[in-house]
Amino acid sequence: MCPKVLTFLLVASIQIYTETYGDDFTVMSILKDYWENTPRNWVGADPCGGKWEGISCNNSRVISMALAGVGLIGQLSGDIPSLSELEDLDLSYNTGLKGSLPPSIVNLKKLRRLKLVGCGFTGPIPESIGSLELLESLDLGLNRFTGKIPPSIGNLSKLVVLDLFNNLLEGSIPVSSGTTSGLDMLVKAQHFHLGRNRFSGTIPNELFRSDMILIHVLLHDNNLTGSIPSTLGLVKSLEAVRFEGNSLTGPVPSNLNNLTNVTTLILSNNKLTGPVPNLTGMAYLNYLDLSNNSFDASELPSSLFNLQALTTLVMENTGLEGLIPPALFDIPSLQTLILRNNKLSGELDIASSSSSKLKVIDMQNNSISFYSETPERRNKGIVILVGNPVCEHAKATENYCTVPQANSSDTGPPEKCVPLHCISDQISSPNCKCSYPFRGVLFFKPPCLESRNSTSYEHLEEESLMRSFKLHELPVDSVVVSFPKEGLFGYLESNLSVFPSDRNHFNTITISEIGFVLTLQTYESSDTLGPTYFKGDPYPYSAGEPTVPDKLSRTGSLIGAVAGGASFLLLLLLAGVYAYRQKKRRERPSEQENHFAYLDLKNSDSFPRLKGASCFSFDEIAKCTNNFSEANHIGTGGYGMASLSLFSCPALVYRGMLPTGQLIAIKRCRQGSVQGGPEFNAEIEVLSRVHHKNVVNLVGFCFERGEQILIYEFARNGNLRDSLSGLSGVWLDWMRRLEVALGAARGLAYLHELVKPRIIHRDVKSANILLDECLNAKVADFGLSRPMDNSELILATTQVKGTAGYIDPEYQKSLILTEKSDVYGFGVVLLELVTGRKPFERGRFLAAEVRSSMDREKDVFNHHELLDPNIGLDTKPKGLDKIVDLAMKCVQENGSDRPTMGGVVKEIENILHLAGLNPDAESEATSARFDEASQDDIPPSLREEEISLS
């Protein structure tokens, strides 16, 4: 094993006073710093012993993270997979969580529930997700995931819930074939929530089997074609079937009549033909919608009259004709009947109806010639006959010959109590208790809105929700549902507030359970409403309001001071033991070369200060690379893969794979070269404490056997220089180049403005900007970086370091290094994005050449000899002139004339706005363009599973 650095020793000493296991403690500490808006009681250094909100432990190991709706901002950190005992991960309703789902998520081998509903995640779902053998719930709905459903999901033999609703997923629905897995293998699954994506092709017959226990099959609002598979009728456990909003054709299979447990069947907005299906076997069916299909013209089938549980029947524009049978109105549970846009004729006779529950009868645009309205019928509900001949009669009344407007002005029943005047942002519940409600939007698909009034709608739904929450034994005092407004996709939207019963706030576990109940669409909705789904708002009150009395606070401070003093003495003792052991080691003869002779062992500041990076043994690294085989050799360079770095420790770069399956890039200083020691130390120290989506992640390092080895996350699409030159095969259009520029600028601005101490990169160039699988830019190579002191000026050594073409001329002359030196290098990168040229070629500097050319002609579009034709010059790319102006500001001779990197970020964001792109969703935009582009439009190397760095 490699020797522990002093920082690790200090961390270990802290563990003496904490209950949390060492690795879990480290990961949770990193997450606390990495994410914004973590719960307010995440204080102290002990997640388990300190009972951090949302964190559950067992035997000092973190087993659950329930942080739904707390307002987290950031990305799904690659450190989470190190929580090897984690069983539950719920980060739902944190819209500030973005980026991709890291492939390393599959390292969580004990994970049972993965819930990321309603966040901002993008990119593909990792194919390796199928290796999480214990997974029971995979909830990724309401995100922006792209690509295809990984067939490997079929390997999840314990999966109960598969929720991929409302993403940008495409392609066919995978089923097993030979050695390939598919969703048909999920025989224990109860929920297939695949609606509102971009799936195409047919619904495979093989998808359904008689040994399945599915209760929900939701494939609505996709691009599916072909017929409804007859194998659907084999799944006797089904309760909800939704295929609406596709292009399905052919007749409805007759064996659907075998699905005796179905309560909801929606086949509307397809191209179905044949007879109206006979569904008499569906004894529990209460919601049926067959609208907007091309069924054979016929009278209302008598089989419908036998559906005794039916509450809602919608058959708009289905070719119905003939007389309206009175028996239709004798269905005992029927409340809503919508038969608009058909050819029904004759008399509407509901006076003798035995049903007392009918609230809405909407038969607009038919051929009904007579209707006798009675006061009793008028009081029971609404009849709408607009567009029928009956409304042309002189005796017709506006009661049934106008479309009623939704009534949202009702004040509802009298208050049960006197509402309280609550402090802070607490709200008085319907039961007059001050508390913090969990809020969100309830989306539902009702048969119509015109019939609703606020009193009936709100209270029916509130009662239904309360029944469901009590069924799941959730501590809910009451709910408030607002009158709905029209939204997208034919849904209506109601604001929902859920109030706690046992205290003034919910904890994160209860928030997770409430969201789970609503997201699964399993709660018993009111009889007049259709299928629903829910999207929660951030809930920052999970830890309650911190109220510590002054006396108690002072006592806590005293205890903390005593404990802190004791800890400090212990640390000194441990540091002394550590120094003594190190001295003994140095005195012993060693077979290995002391390649860290440059470290001042008497000065702890000379050790790399590490945060989140792992120390690997040489044998582990050799195994990852097949003993550094030639097949895994992918390039050369200095640390950070900088092929033109000027310091004197060249490195060989290898691709490897950790036992967890994570791809890594390994940089090994050539044996016998130790002159790069300080740079090696600098890069470890810098990268181990920077965490940003636009900065490359350091996975680990190795100190053994005279080796200097750094291990990075692997960037599948190589570096920006190789993309611009065509070496990597990755094609960047103009909009993607703008996004890459913004990402790199954000990474540098983070180093300059947010890291403590702030960092000057000192080798900004296109070869040090890596591109991940979604073409997100990541700043790399910190071997030459330097921390900034308070004066923000650093006196350089006698040797100016950097790469020809990018070096700040002011820095070369004065030997004074500032953050404006990075700005100069970034300006050159912008010019590379515009021209596609190298920064120094044939003895000429790119910056000087562009400046000279622009001095002669200000209009950038007149410089065709300089512009890269790959950006599409025929259409005058939006923002090209402004990017050139920004680049020229960045490469000004005097640093004081250049903008800051923060200013550069704002400028590029403005340019992206003008170009029609939202800079706050650049990764989503990139993924969406991949989604819309055909495979023929993408270079072959971009379609390969792995792309080498060079």
TrEMBL record:
GO terms for cellular component: membrane. Residues 628-912 form the Protein kinase domain. The chain crosses the membrane at residues 558-580. Residues 1-22 form the signal peptide. It comes from the Eukaryota. Keywords: ATP-binding, Glycoprotein, Kinase, Leucine-rich repeat, Membrane, Nucleotide-binding, Repeat, Serine/threonine-protein kinase, Signal, Transferase, Transmembrane, Transmembrane helix. The keyword ATP-binding applies. ATP binds at residue 667. Residues 920-950 are annotated as: Disordered. InterPro entries: Kinase-like_dom_sf (IPR011009), Leu-rich_rpt (IPR001611), LRR_dom_sf (IPR032675), Prot_kinase_dom (IPR000719), Protein_kinase_ATP_BS (IPR017441), Ser-Thr/Tyr_kinase_cat_dom (IPR001245), Ser/Thr_kinase_AS (IPR008271). GO terms for molecular function: ATP binding; protein serine/threonine kinase activity. It is found in: Membrane. It holds the Pfam family LRR_1. This is Protein kinase domain-containing protein. It comes from Salix brachista.
